[in-house]
Design a protein that fits this description.
By secondary structure, this protein is of the alpha/beta class. It has helices spanning 3-17, 19-41, 46-62, 64-77, 88-101, 113-117, 120-126, 136-143, 160-171, 179-196, 222-228, 249-261, 296-300, 316-320, 322-327, 338-349, 351-359, 366-370, 377-391, 395-408, 411-424, 428-431, 440-443, 456-469; strands at 81-85, 106-109, 130-133, 199-202, 206-208, 213-218, 232-238, 242-243, 268-272, 286-292. The strands form two sheets. It has a six-stranded parallel beta sheet with strand order 1-10-7-4-2-3, sandwiched between helices. The structure holds iron/sulfur cluster.
Length: 470
Amino acid sequence: MSSHSQEFLQQADVVTKDLRHRGLIQTALRKYEVARDKKKAAFGDWQSARQAAAETKWEAINHMDQYLAEFADKLEARGTKVHWCSTADQARDIIVKIIADKKARCVIKSKAMTAEEIHLNAAMEKAGFEVVESDLGEYIVQLRKEPPYHIVFPAMHLTRDDISDLFQKELGSAPTREPEELTMIARRALRKKYIEADIGITGANFAIAETGMISLTENEGNARLTAALPKTMITLMGIEKLLPKMEDLALFLPMLATAGAGQTVTGYNTLYGGPKQPGEVDGPEEWHVVLLDNQRSILLADPEQRDSLHCIRCGACLNVCPIFRNVGGHTYGTTYSGPIGSVITPHLRGLQSWKHLSGSSSLCGACTETCPVKIDLHHHLLQNRRNASQEEPNAMEQTAYKAFGMVANSPGMWQVGKELARMFQPLHKFVLGSKLDPAKPWTATRDVQPVAQESFKEWWQKHKSAKQAK
Ligand code: SF4
């Protein structure tokens, strides 16, 4: 068992027993479900919209080479410097160098999961720069020195009281439970940082190949300020963020808002086409776009799971996943949690070390059903399990399945097994939970149902012969 797997199991055990924590998550997600269903109804035909979105992403991902070249050419034509990075190391080095070349000290950043993926903040801080998250949820988890809890709601595990306590401790504010006052406290602290920052860093929700533009969608206006105030801008994005045409946003913007947060459309939607052009009065003087591969090409080369690159990071699959709802976001120990994280993390960080995530699923299919771009998530979890066991077969498992196969295929052996189980099950209570308990991993959290004293087959034979005797 890998150390990541052990950590996952230990943490899951702690979180699932923390009823307060689970209550917070369940309440937040129930509210989300109600809002999402209302907004979904406004689509008229949500299933057709999903199909159209899946086909658009299929086109973008299957012709990624062409669309990426088109996107980069258009961006460069307006003076943006495009950087191609195969690895996380390269992306971090390029960004740190840009900041160092500018002799910058303070960096303001809007939410970007790709930056979490490459641990960009740690690299910038190690290089001696101050980094401030401008998204409220991200700012809160940054003050707590924690990673985001959820792709869309980074601080969903915290109450107003938790946030008030944090602001008192870190920002010296007065206690308050009012959301508006808490927001104002963060706003006052952040506004100073926008002014001080020499560099702004954003992510990208969509990259429009046709026009060479980056689409950013957010609810707080913080990404706009991040892009508007500093003289140098850096956008870090995964190469899968492509959409072929500008008109595709007409579907993807409301779809992302609906699936992600139960909104008709997100508060602020902005398109960026590069640095300030001659004659323009505002905007950054210099813009860098860092295109990150970081194993995405490996996913692209996999015809079975390529569609996981269609993901628009709406977080909807996390919200409906019974595992996420019980173990919470931090337990995964990954940048991308929930079903999509369980599918792609083994590709991004190693199948054997992260295969446990694909095992931590009920395979109920709720994720696949909810995904707005129709990614076949639960089948991909099964494929990861199969690939992991083919790559490194587990001798114990193989022996156990072979033995079960032999017994299940032989009516005589099945009958003997049943009789033995009936005979010995009453003794189980004497070893229950001890080292001698053969079912300990199961009985640690569940009851063992008694073996029926009469099987259906026995019942049927008895009734059939009684009927025939009449
Ligand atoms: S896999 Fe689908 S549901 Fe999950 S985050 Fe990505 S787009 Fe959203």
